[in-house]
Design brief:
Largest sheet: 6 strands, mixed
Structural class: alpha+beta
Radius of gyration: 17 Å
Number of strands: 6
Shape: elongated
Strand content: 15-25%
Distance between the termini: 47 Å
Strand order of the largest sheet: 1-2-3-4-6-5
CATH topology: Diaminopimelate Epimerase, Chain A, domain 1
Number of domains: 1
Order of helices and strands: HEEHEEHHEEHH
CATH architecture: Roll
CATH class: Alpha Beta
């Protein structure tokens, strides 16, 4: 009986590892298509994507960094969100040109994580947040479109709606 339990647990662990590998592979494959969805928001290219269920924040961070690198040197910001262990997680990454324009990942992630019912923080280039309400991922991604690239995104909001045809994710 103990041998069967050990064998079953080993198979389960191997299956979970394979599932994580496939999820990461799927996220990486999606990156090329996501770059094509970049839209302009106050002079900064933005990719905002809801990745759905993910293995963890590391998966989202890898995707965000891959997207940021693919977007090149033009001012760009990437936000990817997903659900891990029934909780929403968001990663925001900015490139050097976006930071020079005043876009700070840490400031953005605090706004987004607050919408998710939680908190977050990080540096100007990469930040992470999370919350308790996964149903609010789309609204949490919206500040990327509605905030101007001011120094701290505090008080310099542009009252704009999403441009026609833009879908978050």
């Amino acid at each position: 009986m103990a041998d069967r339990i050990s064998s079953t647990l080993a198979k389960l662990k191997a299956t979970e590892k394979e599932l994580d590998r496939l999820r990461k592979e799927q996220l990486t494959a999606a990156a090329a298509n996501l770059v094509a969805t970049a839209q302009d928001a106050a002079g900064v290219r933005v990719v905002a994507h809801d990745a759905g269920h993910v293995g963890g924040a590391d998966d989202l961070r890898s995707l965000a960094m891959d997207l940021r690198n693919r977007l090149g040197s033009e001012a760009s910001t990437v936000a990817v969100a997903g659900v891990s262990n029934d909780r929403p997680v968001i990663i925001i990454a900015t490139n050097e040109a976006a930071r020079e324009a005043g876009v700070k990942a840490g400031a953005l992630v605090r706004v987004a994580a607050g919408i998710l019912g939680g908190g977050g923080g990080g540096k100007d280039d990469v930040a992470q947040g999370g919350g308790t309400d996964a149903a609010k991922i789309a609204p949490a991604l919206r500040p990327l479109w509605t905030r101007s690239p001011s120094a701290d995104f505090g008080g310099h909001c542009e009252q704009r709606r999403l441009p026609p045809g833009i879908k978050l994710g």
